[in-house]
Records
---
Amino acid sequence: MNKSKRRDVVYEVLCSTKSHPTAEWIYEKSREILPSISRGTVYRNLKELISNGQLTKVEGVFEMDRYDADVETHSHLVCRECGAVVDFSPYDIKSVIHIGQLDGFCVDEFSLVYHGLCVECNKLSDVNKLA
Ligand SMILES: [Zn+2]
Ligand SMILES: [Zn+2]
């Protein structure tokens, strides 16, 4: 089993979901495909994939990093109840938020996070209101 094969497994697992999973989740799924893979290998490969620009992290929202195989600039809807992370690109945000020189600061990347309740949790809170 060579190194790049293990990295492919980690990458494919992340590409197979839109749920922005934790490293632990990716590790569990990777083990279903490759039972011999270790936790350390998964974490190391995630780091390598980030430095290769193949995946990103959803920053500053959770205690545990959440990973995203979609490296295009997009924003996220984050549910404060269940922790669901949903991609959200209502418009071309790159054209709305100017990327370039802002007050002398060279911006090459940004992220937007909207906090609230997801569809499912919103339904539940409606049910609780009725009860
Ligand atoms: Zn939710
Ligand atoms: Zn995303």
---
Amino acid sequence: MGLFSSKPEMKKGDMVYAWTNDQDIAKKAECGGAVTTLLKYALENKMVDAVLVIKRGQDIYDAVPTLVTDPKDLKDTAGSLHCGTVLLANVVKKRFNGAKTMKIGMTVKGCDLMALQELAKRKEVNLDNLLLIGVNCGGTVSPIMARYMITEKYGVNPDSVHKEEIDKGQFIIEYEGGHKGISIDELEEEGFGRRTNCRRCLYKVPRQADLACGNWGVIGEKAGKATFVEVCSDKGADLLSKAVKGGALATEAPIPKGIEIRGKVEGAMLKLGEKWRKKDFARLGKDPWTMINKETSRCIKCYSCIENCPVCFPVAESLKKSYMIEPGQVPPNPMFHLRRFAHISDSCVNCGQCEELCAMDIPLALFSHAIRAESDVSFEPKLGKPAYSN
Ligand SMILES: Cc1cc2nc3c(=O)[nH]c(=O)nc-3n(C[C@H](O)[C@H](O)[C@H](O)COP(=O)(O)OP(=O)(O)OC[C@H]3O[C@@H](n4cnc5c(N)ncnc54)[C@H](O)[C@@H]3O)c2cc1C
């Protein structure tokens, strides 16, 4: 396969199989290593000042957001961590001044992307300074659930697992002495599996990034060895074209059957997301207020849900001073939660951070997502479907 096996000039809408020419990256990459190679190319050629990625920490359950400024260090960041539940958008806002003072190249899942867009609307992030390499995302598993599930369902010591992957609908682990895969459907029917907000997500291919990269649709001899890249912006086309011309990446046209399969898998995942919405939202019953009231009565008013929400954080100060909410009262008056839900009713991105980081395990994402999903339905007849759907 030649270095320029597909045309070097790309444009928005193009799709290619891409793979790295860097052997160190190839060894660690999830599939073709295109993501790491593109980020490395952008950093080496000063298209960005730094790269923000997720790196494996102590073990496979430890996903560490990492800012890289030396291109040589990028090879250690290749590979997908499905037990990483960090919202990278918040890291950009809180740790890197919303990319207002430096250009950052970064990987984004659908939730990261939607959160960045909401943060940009609130002037917390400068999207012009971001180069967004999207990764398709079928969902993440919380590290705590992953350890529990591997112990209980797989019958394996979670500390002996050195690799995990999601392939053909299975969550697969490799551990000392073997490997085992169980279908995600089976896991989830039994209460294991992906985070509940990920199950309900309808944004699997992040087409509002500059490039959308994944493994769906790579078939034939390149299966497992190439990344499927869809070009989503002029910025993405420019980066991909330059990386190919510069010899960092090789590409070829995707097999038409592969494109068809990718579309079908995406469609099946969207249907699954709809199924989980129906199932989860039905839990709210005919009198959602009773459930919301009961669950939020555990609230200790730590403000974690607000401070970690990429949408409602600006209301923190007004809630602290609100005449509707008595200071120091725990659990707070239900108005505390009502104000929050009202504030995010048309912009919750279903990232799940409120629920994930709630000290009292209140199913906050379920409530806010149900409200957002309902408001989408009411706006749809006038505005059409949102450009993305969370
Ligand atoms: C949680 C998750 C779920 C995915 N589900 C699907 C799927 O259902 N279908 C599909 O086609 N593709 C999916 N992907 C994308 C796929 O696994 C590869 O990331 C993609 O094909 C790029 O491969 P690569 O070899 O070019 O990437 P590499 O060169 O190996 O680079 C991977 C990059 O992803 C970053 N990364 C790792 N974990 C995370 C994380 N949790 N959040 C954000 N960035 C991360 C790494 O830092 C690295 O920069 C998923 C990825 C993740 C992270």
